[in-house]
Structure formats: structure tokens, C-alpha cells
């Protein structure tokens, strides 16, 4: 019985088109319907690797690492100045699952900025915050607020060292009044000192010492 040669199955043309449409490995520029633009690397049709995203509505730009369609790794996020139109960095640091995570620096309006650790897009861990009035907080954070142990230094160099909870002084702590040469050591609750002792501390070097020293007990 003669052998019959069976022709190889013909692959549908749409399979080839689908493979060509899949962006993977190489750099591509893709425009969304709303005008957003991404230029960078892809994997399995998702942003993956190094790339730059431009959001048309806000003009914001992200440059950095991506992982399966989300910002993940190291990158910077910038927005245009409403007056000069020049780009200003808002955040530079590490990301995970499209949120700030790890060490990074965020710049706020008015010149304030934070440098330190993040988790889930919020300040969490150790960090230092520079406020508009010249105050500086350095210490532990939780859910975007000082929480744990930290120090707040005021513009006049007076400072508080001690416990914090939900952004307020809470627990044992010490307040150094370096302008008058005094030290208060006690316990706070929701920013209010509940009890403690006040003593002279460097009174002879203080710029505006109290008229009379605190009597020793």
C-alpha cells in the first residue's frame, strides 16, 4: 500500500500577528488612548525592565525600573512646575508593587523634604523630615507619622528627645530649653507633658538664661 504524505498543518495567520504584537525584551514606545506614553522594555506585553512613563493629563514623568507592569526597583517621579513648566523631582528612591518602598527622598511644596525609609507608599521605619519653619525631626516613623523614638529640633535649637505616637510626643522624654539653659524630663501624652522635673542645664552658656536659677532640692 503506497504511503500517503500528510501535509504539515498550516498555522493560522492571526497566530503570527499575535506574536508580533507581543512586546517583549526590546524597547518600544506605546501611546495609550488617553495620550499617556511609555518608552522602554517589555516582557509578556507588560512594562518590565527600564522605562519612562509620561502621564499626559498631569505631565508627570517616572523614569526607572518596572516589574510586570508596575514600578518596582529604583526610579524617580517628577512633575512640571505650574509656572516655569520645568520638571521638579517629587520622589527619588526605591519602589515595590507601584508604591514607595525602601529608602527614598520626597520633596514637598514649600521646600519641605523627607529622606528615609518607606513602606507601602508611606513613611515607615527610620527617617529625617525637614520642615518649612526650620524644624527637623529625626527618628522612627509608622504609617506616615513619627512613632517610636525620635528627636525634634526647633529653629531656636531647643529640642525634644523621647517617645512619639501618631505624630505627637508620647511617653518618657526630655525637652532641652537651650535658650534659657533648662531641661525638663518627664512623661508626655498626646503632646502634653503630664509630669516631670525641671532643672538648670547649661544655664551659664544660655543666650537668655532665666533671672534666677532653679533651687536644688
From TrEMBL:
Gene3D superfamilies: Histone H3 K4-specific methyltransferase SET7/9 N-terminal domain (2.20.110.10). It is found in: Cytoplasmic vesicle, Secretory vesicle, Acrosome. GO terms for cellular component: acrosomal vesicle. The keyword Repeat applies. Keywords: Cytoplasmic vesicle, Repeat. PANTHER family: MORN REPEAT-CONTAINING PROTEIN 3. SUPFAM superfamilies: Histone H3 K4-specific methyltransferase SET7/9 N-terminal domain. This is MORN repeat-containing protein 3. It comes from the Eukaryota. Assembles a suppression complex (suppresome) by tethering SIRT1 and MDM2 to regulate composite modifications of p53/TP53. Confers both deacetylation-mediated functional inactivation, by SIRT1, and ubiquitination-dependent degradation, by MDM2, of p53/TP53, promoting a proliferative and cell survival behaviors. May play a role in the regulation of spermatogenesis. SMART domains: MORN. The gene is Morn3. The lineage of its organism: Eukaryota, Metazoa, Chordata, Craniata, Vertebrata. InterPro entries: MORN, MORN3. Its main location: cytoplasm.
